[in-house]
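Supplementary Methods, section 5.1.

A reviewer requested that the exact input to the structure prediction be made available. We therefore reproduce it here, unchanged from the version used in the analyses.
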Amino acid sequence: MSDNPCFSGLGCGMFLRKSTKAELEAFYAITPECEGKVPKSRFKLRAGKTLSARRWHASFSEDGHLDIAKVLRRIQHGGVHPSIRGAVWEFLLGCYDPNSTFDDRNLLRQQRRKQYDEWKTECRNMVPVIGSGKFITSAIIIDDGQPIQDGSSYTGAAHNMDQEGLDVVRTDQSLVFYQNEANGAKLWNILSIYAWVDSNIGYVQGMNDICSPMVMLLENEADAFWCFERAMRRLRDNFKVTSTSIGVQSRLSSLSAIIKVVDPKLHQHLEDLDGGEYLFAFRMLMVLFRREFSFVDALYLWELMWAMEYNPKYFSFYEDNSMAKGKCAPEKLDDKMLEQYGKFERNNLKIGSCDYQSALAVFLAASILEIKHKQILNEAKGVDDVVKILGDVTGNLDAKKACKEALIIQKKFLKKAQQPQPQ
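The structure derived from this sequence is encoded token-by-token as follows.
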């Protein structure tokens, strides 16, 4: 996708006119049979607050350097207009360096597309369905009539492909976009190729929910893949599963530690209910609240979170894998430099925190628990009751308010965590 806001068959005129509810709904059209059955969106396009195509275009210098501080402020005020959401997400997720030029990004984009096409060709040579515009929902059968097993020459490319296909069928089926099999096939291609490239993780249910919006927002399949790959750099540990642990467990442990500090009474109650491992928050953290918000509100929530967590060094971190290796050098930054960081990341920098397990998502989960504090204390007699109470928030949460509350909890936690503990 080009940085140019006019790079679309829809034309610039549509982007620059006054936004309406109907316009927003047109981008994420719901099938007639699902009308009234899916949560209503709370997100609204707000003139002067939402990052518009015009504001986005004006944030670039003549040669393409992006004023990321200006963009972050706008996103944190009112989200992103859907016409430019894909291009904006590529920066928020660290696909591109805001200090790069148009030419730098075009070159990198072509290199990445070539790499993806090479991987796709390798996978297609093993599993010809890949790239055909179709996808599979049952195990691939080889010449002797047996389904593929671990250890075959297809392992890595074909292992779990049937599960990926079944999950694709279930992904965002209320949206008109996925009534087109070719769009489902794009999602399946990306999930299959990612599982082959990152064979240590492979495919795990929930990745489809993370990847689906990127397939919708970025027309080019390779661009959508790289956007998903960058998102997975942050979320990858969530999907690590062994015989003794689940990947998201470290974040659940962080959530437990946060509630213990900021709301010890609630934490003790959950402990008494045998819910001290906080497994009731598993789904929230695994798929970034996709079930707690409507589709449109989930996208709004994600861009708010990513803008608040933004670090202008993400691109270089990912290129040399320093985040994956756990490197995090303390930085001394002046106020102007700090403006290029999101609010959440600024708070971390001020105290030198490098704990990537305590991501904003963890504090957001804590904010939801705080919203339900009284009800959990008064009504929850077991973990099942906690699950039901938290389930009732679906479609009833305001993304911006939840993020604001998460920032308040973060500051409270960091302040208390730094205080000397009694001997």
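Confidence is low (pLDDT under 50) at residues 4-19, 149-157, 323-327. These observations are discussed further in the main text.
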